[in-house]
Amino acid sequence: MTTKRVQPLARDAMAYVLAGGRGSRLKELTDRRAKPAVYFGGKARIIDFALSNALNSGIRRIGVATQYKAHSLIRHLQRGWDFFRPERNESFDILPASQRVSETQWYEGTADAVYQNIDIIEPYNPEYMVILAGDHIYKMDYELMLQQHVDSGADVTIGCLEVPRMEATGFGVMHVDGTDRIIDFVEKPSDPPGIPDKPDFALASMGIYVFHTKFLMECLRRDAADPNSSRDFGKDIIPWIVANGKAVAHRFTQSCVRSDFEKEAYWRDVGTIDAYWQANIDLTAIVPELDIYDKSWPIWTYAEITPPAKFVHDDEDRRGSAVSSVVSGDCIISGSSLYNSLLFTGVRANSYSRLEGAVILPNVRIGRRAQLRNVVIDAGVTIPEGLVVGEDPELDAKRFRRSENGICLITQQMIDKLDL
Fold this sequence. Notes:
10 helices, EC 2.7.7.27, ATP-binding
C-alpha cells in the first residue's frame, strides 16, 4: 500500500541554479555580463526561464551561484526576484564565489559551486535538490521530474533531451537500458549510443539533476576530498553515481510545459550569436515555437515601469510601422520601418531608418536613414545616421563581429572605431 502524497514534492525541494559561466561563444555580448544575464525575448534575461520554471513548479527555496562578471546578474536578481518571504518558508539566496572555503579558491567547477555553500543549504533542510543550468530557454515542470525521481528510487535523475543521434556529439550522452536507467555516461561521443525504443535518437544531458539532499552532500564531500577531481557534475559526480549507484534519465518530453499553440517540446541553448539571434527572431512569427504569452506558465522577470511603445509619422517614406515584430515598452518608432525584428525596452528608431531581422537590446538609439539587416545590437549603442549593415559582407566583417550565418553583432566600442 502506497501512502498518498499530502503536498507536492516541490515544496520540500530547493532549486540551485548554476549561473557563473561567461558563455564565451556569445563574444562581446558577454564582455560585461555573464551568459545567464544576457537579455532575451524583449524584456527578460536568460536566467529567468530556469527561475520561472522553479517558481511555477512550486519550488519556494532557490539559490543562485554566480561568478563571472556577476554585477548585472545580481542587480537583476535583486530587482526582479526579491519577493520571496522567509515567514512563508521561502528563500532566495544569491551566492557569489566569495572565497568562503579558501582565501584563494573561487568556484572550481559546477559541483564545487554547490559544495562551497553546503553550510548555507543544510539549515533550510530541503529533502530534494534540483540542480539547474541558468543559461537555457525552455519551460518545464520540475514537479514531474521530482515525482519520477522518488518513484524510481534513483540516486540521481538527469533531465535529458531526445536529439537525432549524430547531432548529440557535442553533448554529454546517456546510454540507457529499456527502463531508462543510465548504464553509461559518455561526454561528447563521436558515435553516440541510441535509445532502445528510438535507436535513431540519443539522450543528451540538459544539465538538470535531481538528488535527495543527504545523498548529494555525501557525494560532494567525497568529491571534494579527491585531489584528482575536476569538481564537475558532468565529469565527476554523475559518472561516479552511474558506476556505483542508480542513475535514471528523465525525458524532457515528459515534463515540458506547452500551451495549445506549442506543437513541439521547446529547448534552446542560445550560446552562439546565430542561435541567440534565431531564438529571438523566432518570437516574431505568427505562431512562435515558444509561447511567452502563456499566462498559465508566466516568465517572471524584473518588470520596469515604462510608458507604452509609440509609433509616429505617417508620410509615404517616413512612417512609423512594424510588421511581424515584437516591440517593448518605452520604444518610440519615429518614422522608422520594422520587419521581423525584436526590440527591447527604450529603443529609439529615428526617421527613414529600416530594420529587418534586428534584435535590438535596451536603450539603443538608431540614427536617421540607418539600414540594418540581420543584426544584434548590444544595449546602449548609438547607431550613427546613415549606417548600412547587412548589404556588404566583407565591409560588415571588417567593422563588426559577423557570424558564420551572416549575423552582425554591434557594440558601442565597434561603432566608436568607425571612420565615418
